[in-house]
Amino acid sequence: MTNLKDLEIDHTANGYYLPTSVQWEYAVRGGTTDTWFWGNDSTDADAYAWYWDNSDIVDGRTTHPVGQKKSNEFGLYDMAGNVWEWCEAGSRQSLRIIRGGSFDFSVGNMKSSYLNEVLPVSCKNRFGFRVVKGGRPESQ
């Protein structure tokens, strides 16, 4: 797909959906309360994430295959860096929440509590998503 404007989403399909921002933060933290899911030291980021300081490997900064860095305590890979992850919009229509930072942003954008907002039609190679399978939260 080359144009997200043409994408139609069935929010009830097979029980899969985008996580809410709260669900996403729970997943990234993996049971921790530290600044980043790996702890409070930003210099440890290279072991866990692709971001500005380490993603320029050969032909410039770009995304990388999932699973090349260490996982968080829940066993989830690439929760920080690589690509920003879209979250469920809820009642928000004008902007969408993205979480996790990406390969072309600094380590500060990968803090577990950090979120950013973008227009729903934003389309960049630094955006991605992961889905949740199961019952939707009551507030949805």
Structure description:
By secondary structure, the protein is mainly beta. It has a single domain (18-132), classed as paralog of FGE (formylglycine-generating enzyme). It has one helix at 21-29; strands at 16-17, 84-86, 96-99, 115-118, 127-128, 132-133. A four-stranded mixed beta sheet has the order 4-3-2-5, covered by helices on one side. A two-stranded antiparallel ribbon has the order 1-6. The longest helix has 9 residues, at 21-29. The radius of gyration is 15 Å and the shape is globular. The protein starts with 15 loop residues before the first strand and ends in a 7-residue tail after the last strand. Keywords: Kinase, Transferase. One of its GO terms (molecular function) is kinase activity.
What low-confidence regions span 5 or more consecutive residues with pLDDT below 50?
none
CA-based gyration radius? 15 Å
Number of strands: 6
Average pLDDT figure: 88
Protein name: Putative serine/threonine-protein kinase pknB
Domain Sulfatase-modifying factor enzyme-like: 17-133
Keywords: Kinase, Transferase
GO molecular function: formylglycine-generating oxidase activity; kinase activity
